[in-house]
Amino acid sequence: MDFTDKLHFMQCINENCKVFHLVRASQIELSDSMLCDRCRSKKEKEHVVQCLACKVILDFIPLLANETPNVLYVERCSLCGGTFEDEVKIIGSHLNELYF
Q1: Is beta strand 46-51 parallel, antiparallel or unpaired with respect to 71-74?
Q2: How confident is residue 100, by pLDDT bands cut at 50, 70 and 90?
Q3: Which of 23, 35, 71, 89 is the most buried (most CB within 10 A)?
């Protein structure tokens, strides 16, 4: 068995989850592998709020009728030196009223 086939524990990058899950070393670079199975399935059904600076997922927002899931970004979060106010300022989106 080479290094890329070995399983490693990784913490989910959802700030509200932080569950440890198994990931193959060859999959660690893929962003979906950084989420546990539960959060990965939420990503398909809800909007994702993610920090641009540290890439952590801060929250999921339910979809409205006829919407497709999007990733909504904040510039900084409290984990990487921002404030709570920074976490609710979604940048570059027409959907930012959903998070307030």
Answers
A1: parallel
A2: very low
A3: 35
